[in-house]
Amino acid sequence: MSATPPNPQRRSERSRQAILAAAIGLCTEKGYVGVTVEAIAARAGVSKKTIYRWWPSKGFVLLEALAQRTDSNAPFPDTGHLAADLYTQMTGVVRLLTTPPFGPAYIGILSELHHDEELTKAVHEIFITPRFTAAVNRLKSAQRQGRLPEGADLELAVELLYGPLYYRYALRKPAHTPERMAELVDHVLRTLDCRP
Q1: For 139, which of 17, 67, 154, 190 could close a Cys bridge (C-beta 3.0–4.6 Å)?
Q2: What is the dihedral sign for C-alpha 73, 79, 94, 136?
Q3: How far apart are CA 36 and CA 49, in angstroms?
Q4: What letter would DSSP give residue 77?
């Protein structure tokens, strides 16, 4: 009786998972700058050619590894209390940005966006657009309930809420305290003329 030949798809999936795990592990240990395709290949036990067959750069490898570990389509909280929902979501974002392995990998990926148009598109498609849309939709829900004025610029409101988080993250400033985060939410909602 002959042995069943190995399934090449299974072998490829095993290699892909090893590559993603190696990339995240290296980034957590050495930071984004310390990650190279050569180091990923060595740790994963694959060739550089295998990596470049599936991804154009280390940024794309890490982006897929992060996407696999997070759910960018998770529902935005909608408990009926807008300020609390925004606070919950925003503190979750800060926790994600400041905790390895996501934080170091994501800041490295963001640093590549100025010179890699394809990576920029992928980051927007996988992380930024789904979360931005979810935040706008949560504000639209509040608007339909009469909590926000009809003419409020909801997309600008999302930028006002999340801009400070990314500003502090990108410049490596300490994250807002819970009290300061609550003040930020309150300030933006007052700017929009939010009604109780």
Answers
A1: 154
A2: positive
A3: 13
A4: P
Helices (H), 8-47: 8-30, 37-44
- Those residues whose C-beta lies under 8 Å from the C-beta of residue 38, and which sit 6 or more positions away, are 48
Single-letter residue type at 6: P
Q: Which two tokens stand for residue 157?
A: 């409101």
Report the pLDDT value the prediction gives residue 1, as an integer from 0 to 100. 46
Write out the DSSP string of 129-149. HHHHHHHHHHHHHHHHTTSS-
Q: Are 34 and 26 in contact (CB under 8 A)?
A: yes
- CA 170, distance to chain mean position in Å, is 13
Q: How far is CA 134 from CA 5, 25, 90, 91, 192, in A?
A: 46, 30, 12, 15, 18
Distance between CA atoms of 121 and 32, rounded to whole angstroms?
A: 20
CA dihedral 108, 110, 112, 115 (to 10 degrees): -170
d(CA 190, CA 71): 30
Between CA 190 and CA 30 the distance in angstroms is 43
Q: Residue 52 corresponds to which amino acid?
A: Y
Compute the distance between CA of residue 15 and CA of residue 21 in angstroms, rounded to an integer.
10
Residue 6 has pLDDT above 90, yes or no: no
- Residue 124 sits at the vertex; the CA angle it makes with 142 and 179, to the nearest 5 degrees, is 50
